[in-house]
Amino acid sequence: MPESVLREASQAVTEVAGEGVSILGISHRSSWFRNVLDEAEENIRGLLSIPPEYRIMFLQGGATLQFSMVPMTLLRGRSDPAEYLHTGYWSGKSITEARREGPVRILKGSSLNFGALPSASELESQHHQNAPYLHYVSNETVEGLQFHRTVGRDDVMRVCDMSSDFLSRPFDINKYVIVYAHAQKNLGPAGVTVVILREDILSRVSDDMPAMLDYREHANMRSVYNTPPVFAIYITMLVLRWLRKEIGGLEAMDAMNQAKAAALYSALDASQNFYRGHAAVRDRSLMNAAFRLPTVRLEQSFLEQAKNHGLYGLEGHRSIGGIRASLYNAVTIEAVMNLCAFMENFQQQHGRESELNESASMKAAL
Amino acid sequence: MPESVLREASQAVTEVAGEGVSILGISHRSSWFRNVLDEAEENIRGLLSIPPEYRIMFLQGGATLQFSMVPMTLLRGRSDPAEYLHTGYWSGKSITEARREGPVRILKGSSLNFGALPSASELESQHHQNAPYLHYVSNETVEGLQFHRTVGRDDVMRVCDMSSDFLSRPFDINKYVIVYAHAQKNLGPAGVTVVILREDILSRVSDDMPAMLDYREHANMRSVYNTPPVFAIYITMLVLRWLRKEIGGLEAMDAMNQAKAAALYSALDASQNFYRGHAAVRDRSLMNAAFRLPTVRLEQSFLEQAKNHGLYGLEGHRSIGGIRASLYNAVTIEAVMNLCAFMENFQQQHGRESELNESASMKAAL
Questions:
Q1: pTM of the entire structure?
Q2: Is B32 annotated in the active site?
Q3: What 3 state SS string does chain A have?
Q4: B171-186 pLDDT, tens per residue?
């Protein structure tokens, strides 16, 4: 989270400027909060040049609730299967939820352990023009894989979970009917999810939908159908303002993210396989780098020593272990350079040890 | 929100003590946050003496999502109607959602404009032992009505929306299978909802339930099935700690709430019908007092002058208008006395004016 945002947030908890009340007590129907919502929406619209026929909503329930709301809206009662790309941990979760609502056809590449994304040519024969929609996850945080292209065909509606790379780079909203992203990666704190939805999708919502899962209610009530997560939306607005005014927009943000990722992956590549990246080079994520060390014991030492150097949150996801470095928007290039320097030092201390171990186990094997 | 909670919250936004990171950036899988969740749960358990066979969860989506999750879990596929008390604005909303999931029978009293709650004798003949469950709202915030008894019969499962009076007074959890309450009244900021559920209810969840609406997922994962609203839960924990350690528990809180309500209702009753309470005396809420002034013009002056005296948020709900004073846990007796003094002064200034108007319109009518 940017420092300037934390300062304003901390102040707002004590008292919202000019309102005489803490943000934790302010009404979600106040004109102050309506302005917050409007500025948040306007900033997203400006950053991505979103045309008026797209609605922007701030919802609860995370990407997980969108895993259900999307197929409840677009798949229920259909006989043609929706196409779901299975590219890693999170897209797998989206498929489980979609299957409860209707037929799903899985599209995937040839990589067995989600070490690479399916290429355009691998997918070409799998796409079908009758699919109600295509769903994919633009960035798989666990495996550190990111699409660097738009997937699918233009005559099939695209839905994309951009939870972990939304607003890290520009993209063309006109290629999608629904884009969603929870806030807790690049946008704000946990508890709010941004949904951008092409207006005509609203006419597809069935009338028996529970109100909280009905995009029409949220669109018509402009994100205050029920009490929204006021504080989380306020922080999101501050981050969006920072992105637009201080960073200067998504081209600038993308350039910074490219530079950070280049530094980290160069460090991996220079390590002569001491640090072993999980993702194929072509599909490396600018947001998350997942990598292993020669042994689990070394990984544990790495994590412990990293903490002593003030480098936190480097544990790999519990499903695959290892190390994961995340490079979200608010991570500075200085922080990445610190990490690279730590990695180099750690290798100098332990690289030899690992060679000795490997040579010892080779001798034992002989 | 109590002052001490705001101070700690503001500090945590800058940096969580001992963690070197803002609460807006801390992992929901950290041991720090696990401790927050555990303390929040333990405090609720302690305050209400909740036995181990009840699960306590912190969810998203507000009471509105519970309006759907409850009938999705307990009513879908049933032929006997669930009983829903219709006692005001919010219970009406719960009924709309329940009807999407299965048959519902409305129970109500004889009051035409929700000016009173149904009495025990009015309800006695309406209850049916075959109902899958009885649902009611313990406190109707819009109308200022509150049940001062447990409703229903012991051989029909009770579900209660306590969003607006949860932890304002003691109650016996053993009388209910599900109690839920969003946080933004007595507990914390908007964005988190507490659900207390008797364990055996988990076996009634259908396997085709979307994961986010499946109580089993949240109970088994102890509120971290997906990324929870970390900040809102932290604030809730601080408020619970305040309630237990600083206030001294629910008997003490109830005594304070009784005193606050007594002061306000005495002011209404002493006004000789200048301030006209909406609720029948028997069903007056300790949390919200809804009342009218002789004219809409006077109500507008009242609200404007109240703001000049630092008294905010007194507008009645948009569905019924008028004035509404809320007396939630964090409202101090001093604040209520200030309001009462303001009301008395306002009446002294404007009471005569309103009499003159009334006498003028009587003359005009003659």
A1: 0.94
A2: no
A3: CCHHHHHHHHHHHHCCCCCCCCCCCCCCCCHHHHHHHHHHHHHHHHHHCCCCCEEEEEECCHHHHHHHHHHHHHCCCCCCCEEEECCCHHHHHHHHHHHCCCCEEEECCCCCCCCCCCCHHHHHCCCCCCCCCEEEECEECCCCEECCCCCCCCCCCEEEECCCCCCCCCCCHHHCCEEEEECCCCCCCCCCEEEEEEHHHHHHCCCCCCHHHCHHHHHHCCCCCCCCCHHHHHHHHHHHHHHHHHHCCHHHHHHHHHHHHHHHHHHHHCCCCCCEECCCHHHECCCEEEEECCCHHHHHHHHHHHHHCCCCCCECCCCCCCEEEECCCCCCHHHHHHHHHHHHHHHHHHHHHHHHHHHHHHHHHC
A4: 999 999 999 999 989 9
